[in-house]
Structure formats: structure tokens, C-alpha cells
Design a protein that fits this description.
Strand content: 25-35%
Largest sheet: 6 strands, mixed
Helix content: 10-25%
Strand order of the largest sheet: 1-2-3-4-5-6
């Protein structure tokens, strides 16, 4: 049975179908420490901890398949030298993985090693995946589960702090039919939090066109933490 299971504490998903499985994460923003340092906030070791957390998940779930939902790096255009070093260290630590990246809006000039495939969209075991900054193709819209990054969703806790969250939306057939001739009328959209602990988004900002255009309804959305 195909299953996309939310790993709440790990800010990840695991997709399982028979003997096939893959870890899914999004929005690594490797190099974000450099931007924070310019503002006088000095954080160390985040990029190394990202690869260590991936390896820990791999050991726990016995899979070397990894899907990244875009924004692997933090810079929007060409990476700076220090960021490039972080990216090289990250990929060099995962050379025995099979990695697929759904290209995000921060991934221009990303040059990964040969074990990495970069695509616009990914379908794995019946789950459609993309970064989320652009409208998906009809092939993705035919899947029952669609997963995006890009939004960095969060909810506000009782102490007024923001907590990374998974947001789950139902399709809006009326709006979807205005864009797509065919689509899965039972489709659910999972908007994933950033895998990078430094990235926590807004509780009410919707920047993906799937949500801005109400293809998936914001009304009745479920927040999961």
C-alpha cells in the first residue's frame, strides 16, 4: 500500500510503496547562516547538521532515496564562495544517496554531483511533488497526494511563537477546472515546513500559486505539528 507519512519531529515525509521508499524534505536554504551573520546573528553548524539529520533518517528508515523539494541553497542567483563550500560539503556527505531535486526559485547555478538529478516535478509511488513556486502540470494534478515546499508554513503557539507546521488542503474543483481539463477530484495538498530550523515562515502568507489562486482551498485547511 502506498503511504506518505508525516514525520512531525523531523520536518520530513517518508513515502513507502512495497519495497520502495524515499525520504522527502524541502527548503534546505544551505548558507542561510551567512545572511544572518551580516545582521549580527552568528549561528554555526546548521549546514552540517542538515546532512547529519538526513543520514540519521536514512539509517532509521533503511533507504538511500532522497527527494528535496527545492531551495537547496539560500542565495537566489550565483552562490558565494563560502556558500559554495557549504554546498560541496553537503553533497559530498551524501554521495551514496540517490537524490532527486525539484528545482526551486533559489536553485539557479546549483551544480550538484552525478548522484543528483534536478527536475521541475517528481512523481514517486503515486505522490506528486514540486517546489511550489509555479503551477504544476496536469500530470501532477492527477495524483491523489501532492506535496510542495516554498511556503515554510507555521502556526502560532500559546506563547506567541511560530512553530513549523504541515498544512493540508483539499482541492477546490471549481477553481481547478478553470485551469485543468483533468485533475484528481480527491487530491490533497501537503505544504511542508522547511527542513532548516532557521527557516520558519508566516502563519497566514500564501505564496504558492496553488493557494493564491485557490486551486486548493485555504478554507478548512488542517494544520499538523
Amino acid at each position: 500500500m502506498d503511504e506518505a507519512k508525516i514525520l512531525y519531529d523531523d520536518l520530513a515525509l517518508i513515502i513507502v510503496s512495497g519495497k520502495r521508499s524515499s525520504i522527502v524534505i524541502g527548503d534546505l536554504h544551505i548558507g542561510r547562516e551567512l545572511e544572518l551573520s551580516k545582521r549580527g546573528v552568528h549561528v554555526y553548524g546548521i549546514s552540517n547538521s542538515i546532512s547529519n539529520r538526513i543520514i540519521a533518517l536514512s539509517n532509521r528508515y533503511k533507504t538511500k532515496n532522497l527527494i528535496i523539494l527545492g531551495d537547496v541553497k539560500d542565495s537566489i542567483s550565483r552562490p558565494r564562495l563560502a556558500e559554495l563550500r557549504m554546498l560541496n560539503e553537503f553533497f559530498n556527505g551524501l554521495l551514496d544517496f540517490n537524490i532527486k531535486i525539484s528545482k526551486g526559485n533559489h536553485d539557479a547555478n546549483l551544480s550538484p554531483p552525478s548522484n543528483v538529478v534536478i527536475k521541475k516535478e517528481i512523481i514517486f509511488c503515486g505522490v506528486g511533488m514540486l517546489h511550489g513556486n509555479a503551477m504544476p502540470t496536469g500530470r501532477i494534478m492527477m495524483q491523489q497526494t501532492i506535496v510542495i515546499g516554498h511556503e515554510h508554513p507555521a502556526i502560532r503557539s500559546n506563547d506567541n511563537s511560530l512553530i513549523p507546521a504541515y498544512m493540508i488542503y483539499s482541492i477546490n474543483p471549481k477553481k481547478a477546472s478553470s485551469r485543468y481539463k483533468n485533475f484528481n477530484r480527491k487530491a490533497k495538498l501537503i505544504s511542508m515546513p522547511s527542513f532548516n530550523h532557521l527557516i520558519v515562515g508566516s502563519e497566514d502568507s500564501h505564496i504558492s500559486p496553488l493557494l493564491k489562486n485557490n486551486i486548493f482551498s485555504k478554507s478548512g485547511a488542517i494544520a499538523a505539528i
